[in-house]
Amino acid sequence: MNELQTVNLGLSAYQPTWELQQKIFNFRVDQKISDVFLLTEHHHVYTLGKSSEEAHLLADENELKSTGADVFHIDRGGDITYHGPGQLVGYPIIDLNNYYLDTHRYLRDLEEVLIRTLKDFGISGHREENYTGVWVGSDKIAAIGVKVSRWVTMHGFALNVNTNLSYFDRIIPCGIFHKGVTSMQKILGNGVPFDNVIKSITSRFGEVFGTHTVTLGKDEFLAKINQITSEKIECLQ
Q: The domain that contains 42 carries what CATH number?
């Protein structure tokens, strides 16, 4: 059974968290660390994947930044999306050599983790043919965009828990024109305790991937990373 170190980073800025992912990815490739599952909320940010199209950006980058959001062009698959407070973002950095060598199966397994998590809160999520992610009715509740190199994964998913959905208004989320977005809060009619969602998704990830989950505090985990690297990580805020 593969060990999975699960870490809740809390509210974090996108740039240093992306840099942390890259460090962990390199350590995982070099077998210096076991599999890692980072969980976080980000400050307002729009990220554009390698296949993003300009037409899906309804405002220019300066206008987006005027809303208090950063903009990043990144190396994951997929189109443009939004991250922000109230949204649970998960970054599994795992070596698929120890699971299966199948990127499509990995995407389906991430969807399964999210579907089972939503079910824990009485929400019926489902897949949509020809699209990656999880849906409730005709609205998307969770986006997925990953990078797999040397069979080690980066990036991951974003689940709308108590998300301010108005930030999606200035983009075509994931390049899908004819469908909307939703959140657990909108569906249930009240805010959802974030810690409960983290507990559920951690359990469901271990269930789907068959891992032995070890939960670490943020400071404890960063101390472990700092023991490996000469570039110290002190703050992700």
A: 3.30.930.10
The question of whether 174 is a catalytic residue gets the answer: yes
* Residue 54 belongs to some domain of the structure: yes
Which DSSP state fits 121?
A: T
150-185 per-position pLDDT tens digit = 999 999 999 999 999 988 887 765 444 456 899 999
Can you point out the beta strands (E) in 129-187?
134-136, 139-149, 152-160, 180-181
Strands 45-48, 70-73: parallel, antiparallel or unpaired by DSSP? parallel
Asked if 49 and 18 touch (Cβ cutoff 8 Å), the reply is no
Instruction: Answer yes or no: is 236 within a domain.
Output: no
The answer to whether residue 55 sits within a structural domain is: yes
| Domains of the chain: total | 1
Q: Which residues span the domain enclosing 7?
A: 2-228
Q: Which of 20, 114, 154, 174 is catalytic?
A: 174
Q: In angstroms, what CA-CA distances link 163 with 100, 141, 190, 192, 224?
A: 33, 10, 12, 10, 31
In this structure, how many other beta carbons lie within 10 angstroms of the beta carbon of residue 59? 14
CA dist., res. 204 & res. 130, Å (int): 24
Please indicate, yes or no, if residue 234 is contained in any of the structural domains.
no
Give residue-wise pLDDT tens across range 49-68.
766 655 556 667 677 777 77
d(CA 1, CA 213): 10
Q: How far is CA 44 from CA 73, 86, 132, 168, 172, in A?
A: 15, 10, 23, 11, 16
